[in-house]
From TrEMBL:
UniProt feature, compositional bias: Pro residues: 147-161, 198-209
Places the protein is found: Cell membrane
Transmembrane segments: 43-70, 97-130, 260-280, 292-309, 316-336
PANTHER family: PHAGE SHOCK PROTEIN C
Domain Phage shock protein PspC N-terminal: 19-72
UniProt main location, coarse: membrane
Keywords on record: Cell membrane, Membrane, Transmembrane, Transmembrane helix
Membrane topology listed for this record: Single-pass membrane protein
Coiled coil start-end: none
GO annotations of cellular component type: plasma membrane
Signal peptide boundaries: none
Region Disordered, residue ranges: 147-219
This protein's name: PspC domain-containing protein
Amino acid sequence: MATTSFGDQLHDLWRTRPARLSAEGKIGGVCAGMAHRYQVDPALVRVAFVVSAFFSGTGIVLYLLAWLLFPQDNDEVSGGESLLGRGRSSQSSGSSLVLVAALAVAVSVFTPIGIAMSGSGMVSLALMLLGWWMLYQRTPVAPPLPPSAIRPPAGTPPPVAPATQRPAPGMFPPPPAAGTAAPWMPPAQAQGPSGMPIAPPPGPRPQVPYRPTDPAAGTVAAERTEPPSWDPLGVAPFAWDLPEPRSAAAPVAPRPRSRIAPLALGLAIIVTGILTAISLGTGADWLTPGRIGAIALAIIGLGLVAGSLRGTGHGLLVVAAPLSVFVILATLLGPVDWSRFQDGAGERNHVVTALTAPVTEFRLGAGELVVDLRQVELERDATVLVSALFAEVVVMLPPDTASRVTCSVRMGEATCPPPGLSRDGPPDDSPILTIDASLLAGSIEVRNE
């Protein structure tokens, strides 16, 4: 690479950007093209895009952007450049406009850019761009495109298979008469009157030289009197003019096992253990399971990047896949008070006839929780707290009662009255029943009976 400054390297990176391999790709050929351009495993590139997609949708936005800006196969320009009038692309203008619309929707939904971008999205974007830069530094010269990506120019007729040609007269000598030995065959192949081969006489077999001819030139090649190395007994002199067979290729020495995978895995385990001990010992709120898993996943990701530069480390994918699922679930669920499982599990049906205390609470760890308040007659304001971890929660409100309902579900669905005070039947000075229902995962239903 002849570039010297950072700007020249950026220009060369863009000039030698990957081409989308439509014949080898799964969707748009972006990952297959990057893998071929930088000589890495396509599975590694696909995993990088999938993992980054879970962090503010960065992987989705980058994939759509690469689909729009990378040329297809052996095109000179990309679909996006073709829309700007910089050349012709095999991708239609309609497809390019659809990609532009999809990119705009992805940016508006995931907000991966601008001031609204979250910290995880910024880190994911920086890691993806850094990985592209490191791959370019490793392979600055683009390899030739695979045969599946090379298309003939427009207007080129398809290749026609050559017709079978008959041998020219005189190319092959006539067969020998019965009972005579052919001049190009050893005596051992001579035939008798009955057509059966005649056994050779005892003793050493005479060497009959073979003199190949060139019918086109009318010349006779130099005769060979010594058998080649592949016919030491001289039993096939009619084939002595064939080239010598190639020697078997030397066995390839096995590559030494890389230490990148075990080092990355061991470092991730050690860091996870230290951070878990700190979290349990000090009660640090910021060291949640999701953040600890994200740190371990970052170490595994660095190991994958370092291994890809040397063509090793693919075994870390077995750890990265389930760890990514854990980080995603831990991020969605957030901090969980696992001591809530002490509230029990199963089916609980509470029929309440009166609310004597200002605040009444019903809790459950996992199962089904039903709170029946239909027989309650309020004399003063009261609050009912209903909480569970993994359950189906049903709350039945008393009729003709002013109520204020709040529902909170992290993962699941909630069927509740609209927020705010509801006074459909009772007078304005009637007592108010406040329902506060919270759930980690499952469903909540608050209904009037």
